[in-house]
Amino acid sequence: MKSVAIIGAGITGLTAAFYLKRKGFPVTVYEGSDRVGGVIQSIRKDGYLAEFGPNTLLDTSPKIGQLVLDAGLQSRRLDPDPKAEARYVVRYGRPIEMPAKPLGFFTTELFTLKAKLAVLREPFVKPRRDGVEESIAQFVVRRFNQEFLDHAIDALVAGIYAGDPYKLSVTHAFPKLKALEDNYGSMIKGQIFGARERKKRGEVAKDRAPKFSFDEGLQVLPDTLASQLGDAVKLNSPVTALMQIADGWRVTSSSGETDHSAVIFCGTAKALAELELIGAPSTGSASSETRNEPSRRSALQAFSEIRYPPVASVVLGFRRDDVAHSCQGFGMLIPKIEGFKILGTIFSSSLFPNRAPTGHHTLTSYIGGERYPELASLPPERLYDVVCEDLRVLLGVRGRPTFQHSVFYPHAIPQYNVGYGRFKELMNQVEASSPGFFIAGHFREGISLSDSIVSGINIADRVEKHLTSGQPVRA
To answer: Of 29, 256, 331, 366, whose CB neighbour count within 10 A is largest?
Structure first.
């Protein structure tokens, strides 16, 4: 029976393993740490439920809902409180609610008249057709203006990537925005005229996609998948080398060597760069695999150049009476130009029930990223002080937290910076030169939780076709 090795028990690896097992293939998931879920972490303590990675899952594709159904989690799914739809962006030193409807854009105090006129002018801005790759900052200033970048897009980029809009590629970090210009000549025209096409594909834009979680947090999903995989998940089993053999791959991990018909790598770019990928042994003169060994090794090492800025997630609990702001909504994003240290805050206990004891708020803030990378590694007590100071000004918080916990991610989110296409091409080249070896996950097909799940489902389909046809299947 043909078996598959999956390296990494984050959500991509677990999803791929779950569906390959359902297709009838024996799987083994090798995880270097002592837990599953990767950046997904949900902790229940002192009446609080704290999320330290993503806080919600976006229902952007029918594949997301199908996974929930297939995993038997439909009854545990939680939709957000309808009253928590409000989103805030900080301007003038305070959170201002974003307009919920298009007409509200023209009455909001978030933007000056000049910015509002720039939006009206956008459909008449000529699209760029010279093939030059732009940063998201260049793209936005060209199609709108500097104010729109400084007070809106910068905050959005911090909330999604913890990144720098002057470095992130619009082509790779925000491909759907680039596609709107390419296909319709304008973002606004594309939003209007592309809606029907997206509906036909069953896709939902991320800014409009329904959000959800589970009764005990997002950790429920990886824990459930791991439970159904059972002994196939090997914790504390880092993979150090892969050797191509006649009918597949020999996986070397801390528990020994095991042969598999195919391997899916679902770890980080840093871990891929450190992986030893060994070609098939030669039986005489140097084989093509042996000759290609240095180029394949250098290709893997190149993935160490993918930037992962550090981020700290800080979850604080407060008595409601100690918070002046209602905190009714999803949360607030903060542009760099406003001068605060935190990147943004999610109003976690307003989103879902049972995230805080009665009469309390749970606030999840993020700090660090490309904006202030040095702050992410501060000692926990110092982090709490920095976050509390910003929340005091922005939300009117007073007193000490009734709950506090933080997690430091030294390599948090891959940055799809200008020039990122070379890494995607390298992944294609590595797969082409290594039949039966596949790469999936957040540094290939998008950084969101929903992107990672869809990546896991798609790679399971590719591996199935490879194993049944015996031919390489391109991404």
So the answer is: 29
Neighbouring C-alpha atoms within 13 Å toward the C-beta of 116? 13
pLDDT at 290: 47
Beta bridge partners of residue 346, listed in sequence order:
331, 364
**151: DSSP letter:** I
Tens-digit pLDDT profile for residues 293-344: 656 677 899 999 999 999 999 999 999 999 999 999 999 999 999 999 999 9
3-class state of residue 364 by DSSP: strand
3-state secondary structure of 261: coil
How far are the Cα atoms of 48, 117, 281 from residue 405, in angstroms, in the given order? 11, 44, 50
pLDDT tens by residue, 246-262: 999 999 999 899 999 99
Q: Which residues contact 379 (CB under 8 A, 6 or more apart)?
A: none
Mean pLDDT across 80-93: 93
Q: What is the structure's pLDDT at 330?
A: 95
Task: Report the distance separating Cα 249 and Cα 243, nearest Å.
Answer: 5
Residue 280 burial (C-beta neighbours within 10 Å; 0-12, 13-18, 19+): middle
Spatial distance between the Cα atoms of 68 and 78, rounded to a whole number of angstroms: 11
Measure the CA angle with vertex 143, ends 142 and 148; round to 5°.
Answer: 90
Q: 124 pLDDT exceeds 50?
A: yes
Closest to 451 in 3D by CA, of 173, 262, 140: 173
Q: Do residues 176 and 185 make contact, with C-beta atoms less than 8 angstroms apart?
A: no
Tokens of 224: 């459930």
- Signed CA dihedral, 371, 309, 235, 225: sign only: positive
Three-point CA angle 187, 333, 360, nearest 5°: 140
Q: What per-residue confidence (pLDDT) applies to 420?
A: 98
Residue 207, C-beta contacts closer than 8 angstroms, at least 6 positions apart: none
Backbone CA torsion sign across 157, 163, 167, 173: negative
Concatenating the DSSP letter of every residue in 54-76 gives: -S-EE--SHHHHHHHHHTT-GGG
**pLDDT, tens digit, 9 for 90 and up, residues 129-187:** 999 999 999 999 999 999 999 999 999 999 999 999 999 999 999 999 999 999 999 98
